[in-house]
Amino acid sequence: MSAMIEISGLDKSFGSLEVLRGIDLTVRRGEVVCVIGPSGSGKSTLLRCVNLLEQPTKGRIAVDGVEVTDPDTDLDAARRHIGMVFQGFNLFSHLTVLENLTVAQRKVLRRDRAEADRVARENLDRVGLAEKADSMPAQLSGGQQQRVAIARALSMNPNVMLFDEPTSALDPELVGDVLGVMRGLADEGMTMLVVTHEMQFAREVADRVLFMDGGVVVEQGPPAEVIGDPKEERTRTFLSRVLDPTHTGPKD
Ligand SMILES: Nc1ncnc2c1ncn2[C@@H]1O[C@H](COP(=O)(O)OP(=O)(O)OP(=O)(O)O)[C@@H](O)[C@H]1O
Ligand SMILES: [Mg+2]
């Protein structure tokens, strides 16, 4: 069986700024890959290239055997099964939680109301928010809203989930519930590509950790190696800053 995500020779520039430089990455089915690295290293851009929110300057990307960088590919169809969760939750504020989960199912997957509701409730239950179906997003905590955003992505039956710092906008006490949901997904065998600053999560849940800096993958391997015993000086420097609570500068 082919890999879930296959990236080869990926370059991305914004004008003269080279943000990604020759990224090669294969994510196997069921694998959880965490991407770490300083601010501006290209982590979000990498994720956004996978579902073509950014058009690569060069290189090839295939998701679930479909080459998304092929101009003849039906992008809407390819994106349909790529779940994406960002730092902000992007819920529709004028719709209930349940409606937030059913809109795209009905419009994009053409499910009828009963089926969309059933799938939505199933996924709300999965993230521990079954009782919030009729709430408005503003009535939920940030952590609950983020779990709704995850349930919404799951309701589209994704083959792979992309997470871009899903907990970094949350109050510390709300982070654990969201990470718990993500851990559950990983346990169920979901393929996940996760940009995160949560080193403990990466250590415990990732099959592989990628350290990026300056648009290249500097080092990758099992978390115990990349986080526990990094080989590269740049990785060490980054980790000492992230892991040292007395560091007062910007948390990059
Ligand atoms: N649409 C864009 N236009 C121009 N420059 C961009 C654009 N998007 C990103 N960049 C630049 O590309 C570089 C990488 O950005 P990216 O958001 O991928 O970094 P990151 O690793 O996710 O950082 P952070 O940890 O702060 O989220 C940065 O220098 C950023 O300013
Ligand atoms: Mg980013």
Automatic annotation (TrEMBL):
It is a peripheral membrane protein. One of its GO terms (cellular component) is plasma membrane. It catalyses: a polar amino acid(out) + ATP + H2O = a polar amino acid(in) + ADP + phosphate + H(+). One of its GO terms (molecular function) is ATP binding. Keywords: Amino-acid transport, ATP-binding, Cell membrane, Membrane, Nucleotide-binding, Transport. CDD domains: ABC_HisP_GlnQ. PROSITE patterns: ABC_TRANSPORTER_1, ABC_TRANSPORTER_2. Signal peptide: none annotated. It is found in: Cell membrane. It comes from the Bacteria. Its EC number is 7.4.2.1. The keyword Iron-sulfur does not apply. Its main location: membrane. The keyword Cell membrane applies. InterPro entries: AAA+_ATPase, ABC_ATPase_HisP-typ, ABC_transporter-like_ATP-bd, ABC_transporter-like_CS, MetN_ABC_transporter-like, P-loop_NTPase. Pfam families: ABC_tran. Residues 5-239 form the ABC transporter domain. Belongs to the ABC transporter superfamily. This is ABC-type polar-amino-acid transporter. It comes from Saccharopolyspora gloriosae.
